Each structure stands twice: as structure tokens, then as C-alpha cells.
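On clarity, I found the account of how folds are encoded harder to follow than it need be. For illustration, here is how one protein appears when written out as sequence plus C-alpha cells:

:::
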Amino acid sequence: MTKQSPIRLTIDGREVETRAGASVLEAALENAIYVPHLCDHPDLPPAGVCGLCVIEIEGVGGLPTSCVTPVSEGMVVRTQSEPISRGRRLAMELLLAGHPVDCGTCQKYLNCELQSLKQYLGVEESSVRRRAKLLPVDSSNPLFIHDPNKCVLCGRCVRACWELRGVGVLYYKKRGREFYTYTDDAGPLAETGCRFCGACAEVCPTGAIQDKQELVADKNRKAALVPCRGACPAEIDVPRYVRFIKDGDYPAALEVIREKVPFPKVLGYVCDHPCEAECRRGEINQPISIRELKRFAAEHDDGLWKQNVSPDPPTDKRVAVVGSGPAGLTAAYYLRLQGHEVTVFESLPEAGGMLRYGIPGYRLPREVLEGEIRDIEDMGVVIDTGTRVESIDELLEQGYDAVLVAVGAHTGQKLVIPGASSEGALISTEFLRDVNLGNDAAVGKKVVVLGGGNVAFDCARVARRLGAAEVHMACLECRENMPASADEIEQGEDEGIVIRPSHTSTRILDRAGRVAGVEFLDVASFCFDEENVPQIEVIDGSRHAVEADTVIFAMGQHPDVPEGFGVEVTDRSLIGADPVTLSTNREGVFAAGDAVSGTASVIKAIASGRKAAVALDRFLGGSGRIDKKLAPQVEPMPCLGPGKGFAALSRVAGSCALPEDRVGNFCTVAMGLEEGAAADESTRCLQCDLRLKIKTVEFWGSY
């Protein structure tokens, strides 16, 4: 194909070049000559309706609009003259005639194109006639507010809906003598086929359609508009891999996940999915089943991603990682890919940390964990199990250039209450470790678990599987504020666990030194003071007891740090580390994961491991850029197409084994998604990230 020669024209005395087919407005703006405009947008077809971009062309009468006037060779254009200024001011007065005077309180204040143009053109508010009666503002729709009073009929939202997205639910509307843009019958967006992509709000120059303030306030732009990605501690590109699943490219979806984490399948089983709590689809009906889709992608691993992953050339730097949990193994994986030699030391017989010795097998199948640990070893990470490191000094003396302490928080604790030392009073971490090691971990027929988090539910549900006929859980929190995930609570109750929220235990009842029950008081309210000590208000006369022959304390964990280990330990029994660099009080020694933060989620531990890998790599002279591009760089299609019934699509969640089929064994509970279900669920995604692809209009101050 023959390349077309550029078009040469003169604008305001300057000879400029542009491509054939460009408009005069485009030619001016790309050559840093500002022409005021409002209806024009770089991603939308021109409309020529605002009347602000008028110009003069030598040999052409009148004031043509530059956005719809194509350039021609030798054209001579003027963008400034008295007739042009009069025409623009008149056009601006017409635009402002129906617009409310509320700049100071408007969400678009200082980011409003109309406000900016009013300042540029010097139009006074007092010279503009206003509408006598305002139209009602519609805030009934999810995600967006529609204020027809702010509409200036630029048509951007209509063109974005029809031309950019191909959805076609916005129209020009008339109400009495007033004109504005909205749905055909002014009905709810959910009933029109709207895809809730946000393109209309993104291109609206005045705030006639805008995001609800509570969804975007106090957030940066990316976190506000793509909150699932912003909520992920590891910053996994959720919309991107969901789109690959929708398109049937499951290996590419996995590659997107693997760009950020080495445990995609593990996370598909046990991630606490904070992304789902922020998913904008949840404002319409239910959030996307993001964790289930992650697991689906990981279960379709064809192994080809390994062809794109290999360690960088050797740096001759050696790193010791103490602890083989999710934080330690994640850091080890990325440090190895940076070219460093990495050895992981694990005191227990097998690698995995709390993934292996804390989470029961019915939640995380052992073959899943072992497969992803093998992938890490295949990259050259050496894991030395059954080796307890007693001192940092011994590692430094062996010639390691840096050390990462990621020992987790394996030490549980009991409440300091009477009877806590009775026989049958157990600690959560020791109980779960014994179960996962295959040691004798028998419980009685009546079990009480003290705690309301996921670890407490692990203990309670394991106790049922070990034969306990009656299991109670008691926690300080009210039911609504229990820290355990919603699916853990639901599955636990399905398995017959009795939950007693708003309870505080006062003593362990015993009989001949053996646990006989727990005495409780009902809690009216509680909070933590500035020193993290619970302040509990109890209900008078609420003392009561629950019979038990086993009590499991599941309320707080900290790392097991040997005396003389060589790093600072805080008053909370955690390892002291800089919150930004994760460096400790020892040069070249870093710390990450639960050992620093206290008990947290698996995804937070992985994110901490990534952060540690960045810090360690920089300390060792590297760039700290640990991300690897694995998935194909495919630009998503901006056109979504009509979405009839889209808002009503219900969440597709994976099924679970029936309670009666699972309580007596450790078989996997969550069944995951079949291919058809995954396809259906992925189509529910709003594809919020497409909005970030829409170009931003430059204000006149940028020229």
C-alpha cells in the first residue's frame, strides 16, 4: 500500500502538517494550537453541535466548525478573530442557559470542561439566562447519577454508547421545553440493556452522567474505576484474565495471573478474594465469582507458560530464605528469576508453611499445593526441609549475601483465664499441625472453639471430621463483624457447627483436671483501645456455661523466633521490619509475611513476598522489576454490543459437596466451575478496565 503524503496547511500563520482525512480541529490540536471545543472527543466520531470550534477559512464564507471540516492541501485557517470570538461566546451562552450554577459543590469542580471553557472564553454568569425550574436528578441507578440539568446536548454519551461500545441505550430526549440525553423511556438503566461500562460517564464533559461519589471518593483513578484490581494485594489484573476466559483462551488467563503470583491454583482454592467485595458488578446484583474463575484458569494449565519463564543470567548473589510458607516461597521464586541463587530453609518435614500445616486438606488439596511448589523448585529454588535456623549469623557466616525471614506465625496462644491449662485445652496451630502431620489429634464428643476467624473455623470443621458430635464456636464479635469469610461461616453451619457470637469466655470449667465446659458472658459491645487491648462491655446476669470435653483456643498467633536469632522482635511478638522496605535492624536482613504483620490472608502473604523480592533484589544491585510478561499483549475490543438482560444475569458460583458426604472425611469441599459455568460467569464482567482506555481530553491550559 502506498503511503499517503502529509497534508500541509497554514493555521494562524504557521505552516503545519497532518494526515490526510484529519479534521482542521485535529490538525490544530496535534500541532499545539488550541481551538475551544466541547462536543468533540478523540475517541468518538465528530458531531459539530456545540458551536465552539468555529474558525475562518480563506475563501470560504461564514464560520465553519473545525471538528467536521476536513483539511485540504494549502488551506489557510484562522482560529482567532472578533467574529470568531462573538460566535464562540454566543455558543457558550446557549450551552450555559440550561446549566445550574453549582460549580463549587459539583463533583466535577476543577475537572469540568464546561467550566474551563467558560473561563477561557470569558463568559460572565450574569449575562446568561437560566431555566426557571430544574429537572429531577436520578440517583436510583447503580453506579451512576443522572442530572439532566447539567446536560449541554454535546451528544458524547450517546455516541459513546452507540459508536464506541455498540450498546445503544442512550438517546436525545425532550421533556416539555427541555432537551437532554438518557434512556429511551427514562426507565432504569438495568432494564435497557446497559452494560454499565462507564463510557458515558467517562466522556461526559459536565457531570450530567457521573459516578456515584461514594464509589469513587478518596481513591485514585485506577483504584476507583477498576476496584477489583486495586483491591488485590498482589495487583493481579482481574478484568484481563476474566476477559481471556470469556474469549476461551484459558492458558492466557492463567498467564495473566502468573505474571503476579506463583500460586494461582492455591489461590483459586483459599484466597479470601477481597477483589469480590469491591467488584462494581456487586452494586448491580452480585459480584463476579473471581476466585472461582481464577481456579478455573489454573485448572486449565497447559504448561506452556514455562516456555516464557526462565531465570536471568546468574548474579553470583546468594539469598537465604527462612520459612517456606506463601511469603517465603513467593520471594524465593521471584529472586531466582532475577538470577540470584536461592535456598529456602524449612524446619518442618515438608515445604508449604501454613498452606500445608494450617489449612486443612478439604480446603486445599495437597496435590494442588505440591504441584505449585514443584513449579517453584523447577525454576532452581532449593528447598532444605527439616532444617531449623537458630541464628541469622550462621547464614551470613555461610556466605549468603542477604537473608529473608518469612517464618510465618505458627505459635498460637491461650487466654489467661482459669482452667486454660486443663487437659483437653488445645491451641489452634498445634492442633491443626498435628492433624496435617498425621499425628494423633483426637478430640472429644463436645468441642468448643474460642475465636471467630478462618483458623477457628478450620479447627471447628476439622473437629467435626475427627468425630466430634457437637461443636460450638464462640467469639467476641457480633455475627455481622465476624472476621471469618462468608463461605467459611456458611459451610461451617451446614456441617452442624453452632456459632455463638458476642460471647466472652471467663473460665474453662474442669473436672479432675480435665476440661468439662466453658463459662461465658454475653457481650453488649467491644472495641480495641490504642494499645490493641479489647475493651469489653458485658450484659449483667448473662453468665452461662456450655459443656465440652475439648476446648480449642483460636485467637491470635505470632512467629516462633528462637532466642538469639538476631533480629528485633516487637512488643507484639512480631519481627520488626520497615513497612516500606521490609528491612530489619540487621543490614541485609529482611522480613515478610505473617511474621511481620501477624496472621493475615494467603494473598497478603504472597503480596508481602513480592514486596520483599523487590527490596532484596534492589539491595543486591538489581532493578527490583520482578514482573514478567507471560500473557499475549492483546488490545481488548472497545465494542461490547447490546446487553439485553445483562443486568439480570445471576452470579454463578461453584458447587460444594453435600454436608453429609463431607463431614466424615477430608475430601475436597469446593467443586469449582465447569466450562459452561465459567463462560457464563465471565460474561457478567462489566470490563471496567475498558474505561481506562478512553483518552482524556486536554484542557486549554495544556496547550
Summary: The first helix runs from residue 24 to 30.
